[in-house]
Amino acid sequence: MLDRLEDFFKEDYLLLSQAIMTPERTAAEIQHILDWLSLDQGASILDLGCGYGRLSIPLAQMGYRVTGLDYSEVSLIRAKEEAAGLTGADIEFVRGLMKDLDGSEIYDAALNIGTAIGYLEEEDDYAAFRRVFKALKTGGTFLVETENRDFKIAGYTPRRWDDMNGVPVWSERRYYPSSGRWVEKIRWFRDRNIHSSVLDVRLYSATELTRMLTEAGFRDVRVYGSLDRKPLELTSPRMVLSAIKP
Length: 246
Known about the structure:
The protein is an alpha/beta fold. The chain has eight helices and eleven strands. The longest helix has 15 residues, at 23-37.
């Protein structure tokens, strides 16, 4: 699965994802996150699945001490390039998997934003939550923002065309109820060539993630339908879980 994970998050992912992760969306998400966490200036934040630094870099510019963790070497190269010109920002990017966090640093808060779980096996996500728990200070908050499985399945279509930053994208999808995995074969046409990749992700329900976080040691686990804390509904495309280390 690691090969498929690394193959998916390559240069074209960075290009296509910008059609979804717009600057306006990023700015709104950061504001909601800061309103939620109420952190002091200089607080430490662990950004899990940080990608190209979409959240890490602005948070560091605001005066927070940020560590971004991601497995995609391509994404981290972009993140380091973007952060290279910053002055006075306390930011570090580390390549690795959440399940392998070494616990050498302790953080005030941890973020997992933008469906950054489910790419490996379920036991790996359990292990990741346990590692995050150990990496947080007492009273620290862990925010998980991902797809609402119920919404995604309710609107399931086996095939779909999209236009992403002017690039035509064709997707063939299949959901496997027995494993909870969503497998999407994606093709796009760019530079006179057809490119392809496979998205293979475990979709979790809110109850499953609540149980996993609780078993990892977290308490006061709450579920919402967005980062601005609207209630989770069947019609919510996303869901957010907030968990506290007691």
